[in-house]
Automatic annotation (TrEMBL):
<protein>
    <submittedName>
        <fullName>HPt (Histidine-containing phosphotransfer) domain-containing protein</fullName>
    </submittedName>
</protein>
<keyword id="KW-0902">Two-component regulatory system</keyword>
<dbReference type="Pfam" id="PF01627">
    <property type="entry name" value="Hpt"/>
</dbReference>
<dbReference type="InterPro" id="IPR036641">
    <property type="entry name" value="HPT_dom_sf"/>
</dbReference>
<keyword id="KW-0597">Phosphoprotein</keyword>
<feature type="domain" description="HPt">
    <location>
        <begin position="18"/>
        <end position="115"/>
    </location>
</feature>
<feature type="modified residue" description="Phosphohistidine">
    <location>
        <position position="57"/>
    </location>
</feature>
<dbReference type="InterPro" id="IPR008207">
    <property type="entry name" value="Sig_transdc_His_kin_Hpt_dom"/>
</dbReference>
Amino acid sequence: MLFNFSVLEQLIGFSHDAFLHLSPAVAQLIASTPAEIQQLTLAYQQKNKKAVEHALHKLRGSYATLGAIDLAELSRPLELALHQHNQLPSVTDFAVYLDCLEQTSVALKLWLGQFEQNSDSSLPDIQLYIQYLEHNDMQAYSLFQQQRAGWINYLGADEFVLMEQDIMALDFVAAAQRLKHKINHKEPG
């Protein structure tokens, strides 16, 4: 079983508030996975056993906490071989692990995406939203996700993509500056 989503459902307790607190961390894990795969692959190619072991352990812990069953099962023997026998996984075992990691990340992203389907087309109070950003309040992340359609309508598709990148990277300063610029240069309707 690739993913046991009941683990995630238990973590959020079917509570909207709990989901809002957990979703930024899950989104960040998904967003960081491609870079983690690159670093892990580079460490493997360089035969850096400690770095490979550390990365495997970190990824297993992060994903297993959320219910990634297959990834945890594939990771354990690889970590054990590295820790106890100081041996890198075989090329085949490593490729199977990376494939599972990618599939797990996609599955998690799809699961998280179901909550974005119900996007509210209204827009939050822009000045209040800027305050959330300036105070690094994670509610800014949640509001952005909840009201994607409203943001697309307000910002336009191109600007929305840039804003979304800032929010996903948790670069709230850049997002606040982007909104302030938009307010200052918005033509009177």
